[in-house]
Amino acid sequence: MQRGRGRRTAALPLLLLAGVLLVALNLRGPLVAVAPVVDALRADLQVGAGTIGLLTSIPVLCFGLAAPLASLLIARTGVHRAVVVSMAGVLAGTLLRSLGSPGAAVAGTVVIGLAITVGNVVVPVVIGRDFPGATNVVTAAYTAALNVGSTLTSALTAPLADLVGWQAALASWGLLVVVAATVWTAALRQQTARAAAAEAAGTAPPPRPPITPGRPVWRQPAAWGLTLAFAGQAFSYYGATAWLPTLLSDENGMSRAAAGVSSSLFQVFAVVGAFSVPALVAWWKRPALVLLAVTVVWAALPVGLLVAPGLWALWCCLAGIAQGGGITVVFIAIVRRSSDLTENRRLSAMVQGGGYVVAATGPLVIGAVHEATGGWTLPLLVILGAVVVMAVAGTASAGGRAETDNEVGARPAPAEEARRG
């Protein structure tokens, strides 16, 4: 009997981990699903490039503007239920966007953006609470899954559209959302049962008071530093993602199709960066030093394309590693800088909210600078400037000597949060 209880207890983190990874697959994939079927979508809906631009920029704006509302929703529903709400919203928006009218496409995109915003804010909180002994590794797996989701969607949407049409192809990604929601619901039920049993047995840990009681996160300099660091990371990422194929085509004489495939290196190698950062944090014990190293590698893209554009594949690979590592180290810093789950939620909302508002301007700013100058030198210098901002703000705010995962695991989770799920 006791052996069975041990198996159930050990299975809970694994089920939650599966849920985290499946949810992550759905937090970026819907954003890039439109790009492979743009031509068919424009022809059927009879819309211009401006409307298509809205379908890609609206979600990023939601990430920034709706983050405070997402934080309030999480506070009301509880951590795990907020993930279910996020997945339900992604599913509803995915189906709405595929109905085949311009209004439905825009409305569905707004719903997707709002739903993913909830997921963006809540998943780092889940990781900090439910994986206290493996925060760094699970954060790495989460950020890697974000990139895997976008890569799968980019690669498979066009072939699906060739078989069943663009509407069914976009709607089909709702199946992945259903799988994620199903696994997460099962994990939620186990979590609720476990918390109730612990409370009944009197073994639920007491709440841990915050280090700075009642102090808003927006009054903490480290919170602003992490927000600036994330803004620099996200601005560089979205600016480079939007214009890298065009830049490679202009500077290296590549076809647009070949340039698009080539720039996928920038996305694929993010997985390497996501898993490298936790190892560096464990080795160096200083997240700020890891973040500085990430920004040095990030700078290889703009500097390399300016100095030796023929080596574009190397610069794309290095920058891919850096952008995957950059978001990972910021999320690790958010968890380690938070004194409790409430502060974790609020800090996550502030950092991502402010960062994504800035990120939404990335493609517009890079495009405007390119159009004004007629070349790519100044746009690359703008990206380099954003990386410098990330380096300065991040190294000042990410923290000094890091706790090990075992030390983090010693922190008790607040009983009320565990009970509410």
Short description:
The protein is mostly helical and 421 residues long. Helix content is 81%, strand content 0%. It has helices at residues 2-25, 29-32, 38-45, 49-65, 67-77, 79-97, 102-130, 135-164, 166-172, 174-200, 221-252, 256-262, 265-268, 270-284, 287-298, 300-307, 312-337, 341-359, 362-373, 377-397, 405-409, 415-420.
Instruction: Quickly count the domains.
Output: 2
Strand content: under 5%
Low-pLDDT segments: 1-12, 207-213, 401-420
Shape: globular
Q: Based on the coordinates given, report the CATH architecture of the largest domain.
A: Up-down Bundle
What does the average pLDDT come to? 83
- The CATH homologous superfamily of the largest domain is termed MFS general substrate transporter like domains
Identify the CATH class of the largest domain.
Mainly Alpha
H-E string:
HHHHHHHHHHHHHHHHHHHHHH
For the biggest sheet, the summary is:
none
N- and C-termini, Cα separation: 26 Å
Number of helices: 22
Q: How many whole angstroms does the radius of gyration measure?
A: 21 Å
In terms of quaternary structure, the protein is single chain
The helix content, as a percent range, equals over 70%
Topology (elements, then pairings):
Layout lengths: L1 H24 L3 H4 L5 H8 L3 H17 L1 H11 L1 H19 L4 H29 L4 H30 L1 H7 L1 H27 L20 H32 L3 H7 L2 H4 L1 H15 L2 H12 L1 H8 L4 H26 L3 H19 L2 H12 L3 H21 L7 H5 L5 H6 L1
